[in-house]
Please model this.
Amino acid sequence: MRPASRDLMRAINQFNVLNTIRTAGSVSRTKLSEITGQSRASVTNITARLIAENLIYEKETRDSAHRGRRRVLLALNADAAYVVGIKLSAFRVSCAVTDMQADIRSSIVMPVRTSERPAGFVADLIEEGVRHCVKDARLKMDQIAGIGIGVPGFVDRKEGFCHWTPLYRKGERPLRDLVEKRLEIPTTLENDANAVTMAHQWFGDGKGVQNFVVITIEDGVGMGAVVNGQLYRGATGVGAEFGHVVVAPGGNLCRCGKRGCLEAYVSDFSILAAARKIYADLRWECPSRGELDLEDVMDAARRGQPELVRLFGRAGRLLGQGVAGLIQILNPSKIILSGQGVRAGDMMFAPMRAVVAEQCNPTLHDATEIVIHKWQDTDWARGAASLVLQALYKTPFEKIRPVI
Amino acid sequence: MRPASRDLMRAINQFNVLNTIRTAGSVSRTKLSEITGQSRASVTNITARLIAENLIYEKETRDSAHRGRRRVLLALNADAAYVVGIKLSAFRVSCAVTDMQADIRSSIVMPVRTSERPAGFVADLIEEGVRHCVKDARLKMDQIAGIGIGVPGFVDRKEGFCHWTPLYRKGERPLRDLVEKRLEIPTTLENDANAVTMAHQWFGDGKGVQNFVVITIEDGVGMGAVVNGQLYRGATGVGAEFGHVVVAPGGNLCRCGKRGCLEAYVSDFSILAAARKIYADLRWECPSRGELDLEDVMDAARRGQPELVRLFGRAGRLLGQGVAGLIQILNPSKIILSGQGVRAGDMMFAPMRAVVAEQCNPTLHDATEIVIHKWQDTDWARGAASLVLQALYKTPFEKIRPVI
Model:
């Protein structure tokens, strides 16, 4: 149990001030005092400290509503700190440097297949990626306050390793420690869907939303949930495994060994596997050479290839069944669909929406906004960077390394 | 936003002390200081205040491990306050008086069917029940610190009324206000499954558990969830509607108008409706006279009536499907099954457990304990009383009415 002390009180009030400036963009001291409920004196003290530490700065504007009177607003110094985000995927390692506002300063994607390779190999790749990106952003390594790594699988965040991941062989030392040793920068390891969820909470569609869910559709189907304003980790620290909710009992065999999981119908992997079988029989005209990829499949479906249209339709309906259950159980105000797989668009999401409407209580249905997030390749890495950024906002003076 | 102030700090520390005494049963000041992390001086101050207010008392014991040395322990004064819990059901109104430890001092069940009656009629019944129970417990009305009412349906707790309930007609004034006016005692209205969940969190199987779910099986199927130590209310304030998760798309028509809801297979109401149809055809030997009730159905199933065994088996498997989804999505450390319907026992829960094991990831499955709570008729009313009690623990000095 943590006693409520003056230090804790100060940390909470300071976080509230810094966070309000971040959310507002720029804001006056009077307004800060109004929003945070703190006295003018308290706001003056805290902001003086934040300015001294170079985390925020004063900017003057002319107030057009008051005959051009001078006004002093406080804004975040985006260059107060830089962090690196890494995302491990089945066929690539992505890396991005961001500033304090999660804006990307440089990024790189390394198309490497890491599965079956040892953790040390992955740590070497990460080291290369980080050094390249930092140089590309015209920064020095000692300007990087922290590294966040997002990886699919069951992550033990505290110990910095994966209980299970399809992407590399677990070694004797946790991946986090291997990266920390190579780069001498504090590093955090987290489930990739959780990382993207935090990015949405801090810098995206989830800003200011107390209860929302992010579903990521890619090689697998992931989920992260913010509940009462906090990332939800459940009993095991793993959180949700939405991709393995059984929506078709006795149905398709999933990579996890069960039958009828959502992931066995909706993930890029399963769509592609089913499409390749169909292609082997039907051989529709396909412009790309070599093995069929997901873009080819989506193209052919958009041009109306009936078997493929059915494939996306079934995926959408089963996804709708899962999402409806989610709404009934969690009643979130927002569900954000994200990941490469959202490029299937209405082929998948129109049938999904129809099933959600059919299977939800009208009250709960109307209370939940479903957002299809326009996916960018840097989103995963930005999510991983957010892991570090949100820790910086919470205790900025302890964690930020000196910026030279 | 609420600024962290000295008052808030004091309230948190005081709550932690009182709550630690409640959880421990009896505890020394030294141990209190250890558990709460507060200084000895802070613990001494807070406990002095709690003793002066008669909320706790000192009891002396002899410590056998230290040659019978005198030790002073602090314990909760169960008689520091009394509250009343009310539960509205389809065919009865239950009422119970409890002390500060949620022990029942008196209770009554009034077998009245309230559906289609106006809210004023229900308030009259509640008034009768409260006056009767309080007298029965040899208390006076002004010794009652508060009344909690649990009701199935979509409850707006803040405004004290139901958006929708099957149990009475919404009047011009909220039910809570009608009761408060009649009895002049602060009253709280809450969804009944949420109330039972709070009772488990404060006084039952959920004590000290950060993430757990309560599923109530009775006339309907309800659910309450504690997430990160807090009752989860979702986006609409309603929280979960587990009973209306669709587990059999296109299946049985539910009272809510949708098809294939869990409630349409698992609730007492749906089991009874299906059993009556079977009975009309098969006419097995039934000892009770008059219309078949749930006890008759359970008896006949236990004696092996095959159609009924199949009925409970199907209900159990579909419940298992819902519970498996819940585990995949919420990863709670405990699921507590409660309500009258749990008397079906293994006829329903053995097939449920089989499906849960089949449809869950092993890691998540093993992390979730499924508890079948031995149901008592006073559990609902005790749950409603807990609504008031937990508020008392949080701000005891503001809320407790003088005990004469």
About this structure: The first strand of chain B starts at residue 26 and ends at 27. DSSP finds 14 helices and 15 strands in chain B.
